[in-house]
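ingest -> validate -> predict -> emit
validate: passed (alphabet ok, no gaps, 108 aa)
predict: started
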Amino acid sequence: MGTILTHQDDWLHILLQSPKSTPKLSSSWISDHHDSHGGRAMEEDQLYRPGPTAEYLGSTVNTLAYWRYVGQGPAFIKIGRNVSYRGSDVKAWLQAQTRTRTGEHASA
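emit:
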């Protein structure tokens, strides 16, 4: 059974110390504040797993996996097999998707 961690630095430290352990992110990593994207706010300096990230973007985990494969989605962090997204990277990518007309390409 994995260790439940509440701080990003703790999670990274343990993951780097013992690569065979799989730490679990505690529910405190996901803000309880609501906003217009999927019902949850995304904190700038937090790491989010694909599930909460997909919920925030109104997408699916499979779509995020496809975007990672083709290099289209938000920047992500990969340590071993674990994929996470920084709140600031997701917000920046979302902002870059803003368009003023249909045929316009995303700016990033």
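The two ends are 40 Å apart (CA to CA).
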